[in-house]
Design a protein that fits this description.
The chain is an alpha/beta fold and 542 residues long. Helix content is 33%, strand content 25%. Strand 13 and strand 14 (289-291) form a beta hairpin. It is globular and about 70 Å long. The chain binds 1-O-phosphono-alpha-D-glucopyranose (G1P) and zinc ion (ZN). Zinc ion is lined by residues 91, 112-113, 276-278, 280-281.
């Protein structure tokens, strides 16, 4: 065992989804070690039977970081580490493995949808034994510890061969290199009607899945092509690359351009989907048709009983605050509760553990259920395929019928990336200052009903998370929301969320940006976006 003296690193405060920094920051001497030791110190001594799950999205620095973590886990006294072959585990697969094998917890290495490579991003987070991201009380304790520790411990040993499935000893600890796909694929098969989906595909239904050179390639090939019989080539960009092919592995209309071009082109397939760097996000497309993530959650909830795992109905729905209210209408119709939580998946865990909700979703291309404690890209794809197989209608027809039944929540998010931090903080401070004076005022024809900085009290453990975003609600149910990203690694990202409800089905055909034009202009005015950020247009519109 080697004990290495270290000095605390400031700036290791985890954001919405763990600690994310440039690879160059993580590669500094002692930097990763500091964070990992802070995690282990926070957990305290573990029993000799304790199992740790380790894996990542395969991005640059993944293998190096895993070797360090294995030696530190052995020094901390873990009995066994389960690590995905090649260092690979998608985020939902890591959650599945933690739960299936009753692990103590897991370290997941990913910067999600952020680009990878020597000059790009890396990330790490700790998930608890329920398979979900550690709650804020734990991440706060990890951060506090990272500022105080003066040494870390690791054993002296050769690197482990991560490519060979099987067991090796590392000091007193066993390292078990596992097939990263099998457990997850089996779980999916237990949830959905694979026979019906197989029949759909055999009947000529055409689909395309874009893995964006990221972690879902091997998962999608096994499930879609091998188990469900989709033709070879259904999965594109299916080999995980350390730099994601130089791309931005974020499944949205901007970054998944190859898939989008095909789905909106001549002879488009019936169904298209993409996932992100670590496999927890999803984008769903029909032929010439985009399904917003907020609508996707609502449609899946409304059709859940068509899937074997949810045939008896759902307990409730949770959505992040900025996500549209479409799911709320489904919950009301089903007579189940709908919870509004702060941004970030970790807030759903308590609700799922307590059996209060079955389905969860975020506007940021995240959908999932209580089968794991992470959002799950391929799960959402399979649930859509299950619904499509059982209903025998097109994606567009299903969504349009949903709008006709429930009304349409026009919805869009405008991101201003790389804004100077002081300017972004100033903008939010300005909104906080004006919030109290806004109710009753009329902006661009909309009357403000309520304005606040969203705070959430967890209904299970009573913990309070304040300062989660400025909401301006209007009397007709429309809404604009402003918040700063907690996942960016350079400057600040301002996110502006705009929503308008339209009950009248003769008005469900407007282009989204046009339907929201007044609210978008209003948002720009009230937050003084142009003056404060120097930007006259967003970087990304979804
Ligand atoms: C973003 C999304 C959020 C999601 C998170 C992790 O966080 O907005 O919904 O949970 O990524 O995928 P943000 O950058 O907005 O803090
Ligand atoms: Zn992700």
């Amino acid at each position: 065992m080697r004990i290495v003296a270290t000095t605390p690193f400031d700036g290791q405060k985890p954001g919405t989804s763990g600690l994310r920094k440039k690879v160059k920051v993580f590669a500094q001497p002692h930097y990763l070690e500091n964070f990992v030791q802070a995690v282990f110190d926070t957990l305290g001594p573990v029993p000799a039977t304790a199992v740790l799950v380790v894996g990542g999205d395969g991005r640059y620095h993944n293998r190096t970081a895993i070797q360090t973590i294995l030696k530190m886990a052995a020094a901390h006294g873990f009995g066994r580490v389960l690590v995905g072959q090649g260092g690979i585990l998608s985020t939902p697969a890591a959650s599945c493995v933690i739960r299936k094998y009753g692990a103590f917890g897991g370290l997941i290495l990913s910067a999600s949808h952020n680009p990878g490579g020597p000059d790009e991003d890396f990330g790490i987070k700790y998930n608890s034994g329920n398979g979900g991201p550690a709650p804020e009380s734990v991440t706060d304790a990890i951060y506090a510890r990272s500022l105080a520790l003066t040494e870390y411990r690791l054993i002296e040993a050769e690197d482990v061969d991560l490519d060979r499935i099987g067991e090796v000893r590392l000091g007193a600890m066993t390292v078990q290199v596992i097939d990263p796909v099998a457990d997850y694929a089996d779980l999916m098969e237990s949830l959905f009607d694979f026979a019906a989906i197989r029949g759909l595909i055999a009947g000529g239904f055409r689909l395309r899945f874009d893995a964006m050179h990221a972690v879902t390639g091997p998962y999608a090939r096994e499930i879609l092509e091998r188990r469900l019989g989709a033709p070879a080539g259904t999965v594109i960009n299916g080999v995980p690359l350390e730099d994601f092919g130089g791309g931005h592995p974020d499944p949205n209309l901007v970054y998944a351009e190859e898939l989008v071009a095909e789905m909106f082109g001549q002879n488009a397939p019936d169904f298209g989907a993409a996932s992100d760097g670590d496999g927890d996000r999803n984008m769903v497309l029909g032929r010439n048709f985009f399904v917003t993530p907020s609508d996707s959650l609502a449609v899946l909830a409304a059709n859940a009983t068509l899937c074997p795992a949810y045939a008896k109905g759902i307990a409730g729905i949770a959505r992040s605050m900025p996500t549209s209210g479409a799911a709320d209408r489904v919950a009301a119709r089903l007579g189940v509760p709908c919870f509004e939580t702060p941004t970030g998946w970790k807030f759903f865990g308590n609700l799922m553990d307590a059996g209060k909700v079955t389905l969860c979703g975020e506007e940021s291309f995240g959908t999932g259920s209580d089968h794991v404690r992470e959002k799950d890209g391929l799960w959402a794809v399979l649930m859509w395929l299950n619904v499509l197989a059982r209903r025998g209608e097109s994606v567009e027809a299903i969504v349009r019928q949903h709008w006709a039944e429930y009304g349409r929540n026009y919805y869009s998010r405008h991101d201003y990336e790389g804004v100077e931090s002081a300017a972004a903080n100033g903008l939010i401070a300005h909104l906080r200052d004006t919030a109290a004076s806004l109710p009753g005022t009329v902006l661009h024809g909309y009357t403000v009903a309520m304005c606040d900085d969203f705070a959430y009290t967890d209904p299970v453990d009573g913990s309070v998370s304040a300062g989660q975003g400025i909401r301006i609600l209007f009397t007709d149910g429309s809404r604009v929301v402003f918040r700063l990203s907690g996942t960016g690694t350079s400057g600040a990202t301002l996110r502006v969320y705009v929503e308008r409800y339209e009950a009248d089905s003769s008005r469900h055909d407007q282009p989204t940006q046009q339907a929201l034009a007044d609210l978008i202009a209003l948002a720009g005015d009230v937050a003084q976006i142009a003056a404060r950020t120097g930007r006259d247009a967003p970087t990304v519109i979804t």
